[in-house]
Amino acid sequence: MGEYISQEIIDSILHQADIVQIISEYIPLTRAGRNYKALCPFHEEKNPSFMVSPEKQVFHCFGCGAGGNIFTFLMKWENISFPEAVRIIAQKLGMPISLKEKQTGEKEQFYQINARVAEFFHQQLKKNRVAQNYLYRRGFKPATIDLFKIGWAPCSETFLNFCRTNNLPREKLKELGLIKTSIKDGNEYSYFRERIMFPIFSSSGKIVAFGARVLDESLPKYINSPSSPVFDKGRNLYGLHLACSEMRKSGEAILVEGYTDVITLHQEGINNSVASLGTSLTDSQARMLKRYVNKVFLAYDEDSAGEAATVRGIDLLLENELQVNIISLPRGEDPAEFVRKRGKKAFLRKKQEALPYIDYRIKVAKGDGGSLTLEKKLEIVNSLFSTLKKIKPRHILDDALRKIAEAFNFSEESLRSDFNRF
Ligand SMILES: [Zn+2]
Questions:
Q1: Is 268 strand, coil or helix?
Q2: Which of 52, 207, 262, 384 satisfies CB 3.0 to 4.6 Å to 239 for a cystine?
Q3: 47 CA to middle of ligand 1, Å?
């Protein structure tokens, strides 16, 4: 069952909206005769086969077959339902739609359950001094706790009671991973117990899942909601709903690892920060970033910056034609801790000093400046080559090759021919 939106409203939106204008808010379109073209956002391609027709008010991709009107475009782009797409476009046009008579769709039902549960956790936090003090010690202000709707998951019994008295549907709670059934005795219990709760929001601000942290150092330190009809971890960037407008404005994003990093940076007014939630960035996350920015500042923990998972993630950013700069923080300090100890200005200075990724790799490879054997140099250059293969824009690649040649005293020509054979 979908929400009810009258045909009259749909027609009047189609009449008023211009598909060229709307799509060009998401991807750059170039004129091609009577139509406009672009690289298709829905499949990987080198030459544009994505066409937009202003006359017919439709788009069509000759590569992957995607096509339709503005609603279809938005549904595919944002991975949302038809009524949601209608609402977004209506908003863009300044046409408020009354949703009083709406019948809620299935996804909407999950969002509503999550919203009620998040509110419950949030209220529980306000009753729990120990949990509050933990957050205050981390430097979170009450307004920040409200903004991110941080909460406290009580014991199983209290949560199950809340679900019962509010008639929350059991099956849905299970699908969302909020309630589990014990294999031993078949009894139900709540998955999140006595943990700080971080709601995870979709890009439009709906609560799709939860992350949860223990108060002490017991393990596992963090647990997350499992995948559900409204949550896929690899397709989410934590904090995006608050960061997206600043990201679009500045053309830059600061990518961090964890909840507390994002929350701390936003509290300091560094509003273009999002977290990958773990170091293994996915291709979907890289594409999401590319929708808003061209430049990504990576502020991972020094220890994980060198890990294979991080390097793979950076390769994905480069493949998506994002410029990557590395913010180097002191070993063992994450961005949250750094800002808490040294302040916002110190962090922004670090951001200013951030090295372009290739420069960073060269610096790390050269280490403390001792001389390198030819063998070692070739090994380093080879590992850099596999990263360079991901860089598409010609001028950035040329620039990187020049830097590497200079750094290791190779002639640019011989390096280039080695690279072409790589
Ligand atoms: Zn396509």
A1: coil
A2: 262
A3: 11
Confirm whether 113 is domain-assigned: yes
Its domain, for residue 49, covers 7-92
The pLDDT, as a whole number, for residue 370 is 66
32/182 Cα distance (integer angstroms)? 61
C-alpha 44 to ligand 1 mean position (Å): 7
Do 155 and 81 fall within a single domain?
A: no
Tens-place pLDDT, residues 351-371: 999 999 999 888 888 876 667
Mean pLDDT, range 229-251, rounded to an integer:
90
Q: How far is the CA of 400 from the centre of ligand 1 (A)?
A: 30
State how far the Cα of 59 lies from the Cα of 108, in Å rounded to an integer: 28
Query: Are 241 and 332 in the same domain?
Result: yes
Domain count, the chain: 4
Alpha carbon of 42 to ligand 1 centroid (Å): 5
**How far, in Å, is the centroid of ligand 1 from the Cα of 63?**
5
357 — alpha (psi -120 to 50), left (phi > 0) or beta? alpha
Using the mean position of ligand 1's atoms as its centre, give its distance from the Cα of residue 181 in Å.
43
pLDDT digits (tens, 9 = 90+) for 136-157: 999 999 999 999 999 999 999 9
